[in-house]
Hints:
The complex is a heterodimer.
Chain A: E1 5-12, H1 24-39, E2 48-52, H2 55-58, H3 63-67, E3 79-82, H4 86-99, E4 104-112, H5 118-121, H6 138-151, H7 157-170, E5 188-190, E6 193-194, E7 203-212, H8 213-219, E8 224-233, H9 247-256, E9 265-267, H10 273-283, E10 290-291, H11 306-319, E11 325-332, E12 338-345
Chain B: E1 7-18, H1 21-31, E2 35-39, E3 45-46, E4 63-66, E5 69-78, E6 91-98, E7 105-109, E8 122-127, E9 138-143, E10 164-175, H2 179-188, E11 193-197, E12 204-205, E13 221-225, E14 229-237, E15 250-257, E16 264-268, E17 281-285, E18 295-298, H3 306-309
Antiparallel strand pairs in B: 1-10, 2-3, 2-4, 5-6, 5-8, 6-7, 8-9, 11-12, 11-13, 14-15, 14-17, 15-16, 17-18
Amino acid sequence: xxxxxxxxxxxxxxxxxxxxxxxxxxxxxxxxxxxxxxxxxxxxxxxxxxxxxxxxxxxxxxxxxxxxxxxxxxxxxxxxxxxxxxxxxxxxxxxxxxxxxxxxxxxxxxxxxxxxxxxxxxxxxxxxxxxxxxxxxxxxxxxxxxxxxxxxxxxxxxxxxxxxxxxxxxxxxxxxxxxxxxxxxxxxxxxxxxxxxxxxxxxxxxxxxxxxxxxxxxxxxxxxxxxxxxxxxxxxxxxxxxxxxxxxxxxxxxxxxxxxxxxxxxxxxxxxxxxxxxxxxxxxxxxxxxxxxxxxxxxxxxxxxxxxxxxxxxxxxxxxxxxxxxxxxxxxxxxxxxxxxxxxxxxxx
Amino acid sequence: xxxxxxxxxxxxxxxxxxxxxxxxxxxxxxxxxxxxxxxxxxxxxxxxxxxxxxxxxxxxxxxxxxxxxxxxxxxxxxxxxxxxxxxxxxxxxxxxxxxxxxxxxxxxxxxxxxxxxxxxxxxxxxxxxxxxxxxxxxxxxxxxxxxxxxxxxxxxxxxxxxxxxxxxxxxxxxxxxxxxxxxxxxxxxxxxxxxxxxxxxxxxxxxxxxxxxxxxxxxxxxxxxxxxxxxxxxxxxxxxxxxxxxxxxxxxxxxxxxxxxxxxxxxxxxxxxxxxxxxxxxxxxxxxxxxxxxxxxxxxxxxxxxxxxxxxx
Lengths: 349, 313
């Protein structure tokens, strides 16, 4: 690798159940301005802009082009969009910076789940021939995975409840989180998953700025250097996979260099408690690693932004000197279908 | 701040999808109550079958019939079925490995309660009465305690094989347009056009979207514009739109309202279509009960000079 690239700024909205009074661009703009303010950069200073979102969430066609108003995209800027979580937009921006075409990049993503029924909306990403016509919602598919883990002896309902409780307790120090403190585990939503095992549904946005080499040191006191980043996908048939494992996460982590030295922190994108069990196993995380100090996706899960939030939260801990080497993970699709792993480091103190 | 506007929005689409040869055989098979898998390069049998080997990416075409009986590999209890799901009474979602297959198929299992389902239980396909060549030709699975069914060794060749499916989808939303557009719509109900000014470049956007696309900052200062404006450019529509009761040909135009820095678009009426021109001065025509102008008509003023609107084309 010829260029060092770092996350130099991160911002997020408060994540809320609804944001009726705001359009997507109105929700997004404050976080765009926040990351520009943190670095002192202006719109015109940004070399590349990349975003992640899905029009299906709010049912608003071409919302990603309207969101560009908030960036100041006219006259035209160098820009791209992925219909994926913002973590994958960050991956594209990282490759753009690697080529040397740009020295700075703005990455953002947003999701407004409140106008629709996100459990049903997410069925539209499934295999359209064999699966989508059955409308299996996102909680049902996660529940099939959770039951497979229980059958395999990898977890049980009390252990899942403990993951939920730890996440929301940790979120008490995260003012942006939607679900904080003591949250009842509740009734079954789709057994074996209870409401407490599932993420809150809400609206939110996140943004980061990436910079290369010396530029990163100019813009940030302690840049979060991306030492490695990789993403991998499972076979698309749910019944082809071993749902209790995540070989794609393990491979991405290996390619990102996660196993070369221990990390002190891991921000895992596990919207369901049971998925943290799978990820801990795949990433070989033991109790010495601080997992999801932000509360993770169980505390705030703005779809399309929750993965970028993990990278942002991990980077912010490095910025603040609370971590020296952190792993950030993002997922997309049913039952951890696709997984991205980034390894971030701060300069020695 | 005025009340937040909301309206129901249904997004509905029938996707017409073509099928590859393996998918075609599998779905046609369901119509004929035949279950087919496909053999991978290493000899595993995938059900439901796919066109390419998930491990090697080789094209795979070797179809093999499997049984209508199988074993649950995992399950989840769905006490509140949602629209479109296979059963409208509480059921278990299941992954089922059919006898003769190495992978599992997702479907519903019809049992009275969660105590009647467990991983490893034996089940059998319940066929839908009307079958068209779709995954829903399997109505669901049901408990089964007999011997495994023996597949007859079907070749996978069918008369009248289907080559495509129509997958209907509907999603329901409660749409809310946000602060800036809500204010615009509220003003329209008083027959006023209210845009917003960029605090940085001072341009006035109408309709406002809440942000200046040049400066990337929020707009908030409300500015009443129009009602008169200038046609900056136009086209002549010759094709009648579905569900639209307007005689063709008619003119659709970009109109720069007086005081606005962005043209909006609307129909031009009250003048023969072939007499509309760039620079024509127009004003809105409201009809009773409507929340936006029906169309714009000439004011009778002298045409605007090109230089006054050339930046708004």
